[in-house]
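Re: the request from the purification team.
They wanted to know what the chain is likely to look like in 3D before they choose a buffer screen. I agreed to run a prediction and write the result into the notebook, where they can find it.
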Amino acid sequence: MKEIKNIGVIGSGTMGNGIAQTFALFGFQVHLIDLNLEILEKAKNEILRNLERMVKKNAISLGDQEKCLERIQFSVDFQAGLETKDLIVEAVTENPEIKLDLFRKMDGYAPSHCILASNTSSISITRLASVTKRPEKVIGMHFMNPVPIMKLVEVVSGLQTNTETLEQIMSLSRILDKIPVPVKDYPGFISNRILIPMINEAIYSLYEGIAGVEEIDSIMTLGMSHPMGPLFLADFIGLDVCLSILEVLYKGFKNPKYAACPLLVNMVMAGRLGVKSGIGFYIYDNEKKEKKVNPQFLVN
């Protein structure tokens, strides 16, 4: 069993740059890879902002911040970025075909001992492993957003993932000061199999006029002690991501209870994706860090 020291992260969006930052903070050398330098520059700036916030909160020192940034290499060269890695974590868009193509490339570039992991929130690990020559070394590492703060890592074993790979990833997650929870490879795993239908039901409740946005979210925060309401959480996750997960659940189980609410479908088609687009069930002022209910959903 080779010690994991060098990490590759593919995809530098919110999840990818959070994963890269977390590994680097705990002493790992990280290669963060994406399609172009402009995207990577945005990721670098986001990591810097996150680290600066951590320094202000005394969570890390200035020295920790500097060392973290020194450990992250930003690159558009897939082959050079992957050929010396012990672990590669894929964190690209939740699209099966894109991920399958990426796993073929990862398998071709990575050394034979390298573990291939996906941050997917719903796509089958067994399916991703099927396009590689190392299915026993393919596993899910489903981090939660924001990665540097949230403790959970949902560790998903595919049908052919071996015990050694599972034990290595469980141990590695603990080194990152995370709490790894092993689950089996079925649509939505556990987190999203429970969470996303709840969000979908909240959207149905809004769609049917039972209550407004703030009312639904208040009931769940005040009555159920949820840290944020389901509609705000849907915006935070991304309504397109919520829809994609529901489609995976519906296709995987053939159960109508996973059918996406028509309102969610329409919101995604209209490009109203939540926080990242500035409008969803709420409207967001990202500069002021403020939100207000989308007037479309105000209760008279």
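For the purification team: The chain has two domains: 6-184, 192-295.
Please add any questions underneath this entry.
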